Amino acid sequence: xxxxxxxxxxxxxxxxxxxxxxxxxxxxxxxxxxxxxxxxxxxxxxxxxxxxxxxxxxxxxxxxxxxxxxxxxxxxxxxxxxxxxxxxxxxxxxxxxxxxxxxxxxxxxxxxxxxxxxxxxxxxxxxxxxxxxxxxxxxxxxxxxxxxxxxxxxxxxxxxxxxxxxxxxxxxxxxxxxxxxxxxxxxxxxxxxxxxxxxxxxxxxxxxxxxxxxxxxxxxxxxxxxxxxxxxxxxxxxxxxxxxxxxxxxxxxxxxxxxxxxxxxxxxxxxxxxxxxxxxxxxxxxxxxxxxxxxxxxxxxxxxxxxxxxxxxxxxxxxxxxxxxxxxxxxxxxxxxxxxxxxxxxxxxxxxxxxxxxxxxxxxxxxxxxxxxxxxxxxxxxxxxxxxxxxxxxxxxxxxxxxxxxxxxxxxxxxxxxxxxxxxxxxxxxxxxxxxxxxxxxxxxxxxxxxxxxxxxxxxxxxxxxxxxxxxxxxxxx
Length: 478
Prior knowledge:
Layout: E1 2-4, E2 16-21, E3 28-34, H1 37-52, H2 60-76, H3 78-89, H4 93-116, E4 121-122, E5 133-141, E6 144-148, H5 156-168, E7 172-175, H6 182-193, E8 201-203, H7 209-217, E9 221-227, H8 230-238, E10 245-249, E11 255-258, H9 264-276, E12 288-292, H10 293-308, H11 328-343, E13 347-350, E14 363-366, H12 373-376, E15 383-389, H13 392-399, E16 404-405, E17 407-411, H14 415-424, E18 429-432, E19 448-449, E20 452-453, H15 458-464, E21 466-474
Parallel strand pairs: 1-3, 6-7, 6-9, 7-8, 9-10, 11-12, 11-17, 12-15, 14-15, 17-18
Antiparallel strand pairs: 2-3, 4-5, 5-21, 10-20, 13-14, 16-19
């Protein structure tokens, strides 16, 4: 079994160790050294000293060169990156291939962003008071970045947080999810090998919650990037030091509208993929399908047929469609929620049972009660609910009724229906004739209300991790 030392230069001896296991079968994958409060303090002291020493800052061309080499190394090691991410996170092989390709492209988006977005000209001379002046901005790093990441995309999310920090010129300390730290370690080692000095990107495998909290709430943190549960994210945000900025990315209970004129042949594979991809462990996974009564039952049964044909099993098998849930407790929880909904009147069209301690059948429920957990909370499991509606605006009102809001979708052949849904759905993005989980890494990606704070997407994250510093020059020659 692989052994991994602390990636905190000059840190004290490790506080303990963590054994990483595969969620599918519990096989041990690696043993990692862990750090406590003193390691968090040491990492922050190192990062803060770098930031306060401007002569040590990495020039833009240096960052570009490091990221270019990193993308090349990732291409060379793609097979191992795929294997480690699939094994530790349980996402099926074919979907993990897509994740790794996206992560490599994400590094390249970082390069494109810092090559093309370095500041702006600020208009002057438009009033008498601003005459004889010229002004412009340029971007500088905001300071020390602390990134806390989630398990469900263990490589690509790290790229969104860590590669963005490197591109912005910020020293970064990252705490990966304890279930999936290997992909993070792989990426950070790639950065170091590509020429990034080790002190510019450090990894804390937290020995306990106090170590993680000490890392996040320290006054030396300028920007906090969090991807994970709303309960933890909002709690940590409340404890940030004065002046610290943050971005939070949580989950939603994504609604998808199916109009009476929807192309069901187009919608069926999209909803199947958007609802059951990574066993539903995606923050914008299709969870609530509001289908016009004229098509609801037929579509729900077709969806159940499609779900029943999906292969559930070993994520390292290239033929697997759905892998395990990340922890056995999550499998139990999903089963409890499904059982509760059926007992309250939902019609179970397929699934509804555990396959093993780690795997759950793809499940389709028809008309679960509006107050059931599967209707009001993020399932984060392979469960899709279909609700029949008669009035589109009533369906939109139900879709908007929760305290969470992220991405939404509508299937229709009518431009007017699509635009009505876009105008009235509470969402940061509305997909027309596609599922709610569509994402490319350069687009804005934002949870609203309790679903998050700020805007993700690599260019937006780099901007958040930067300040635009203005220079105003007064000259009679202007």
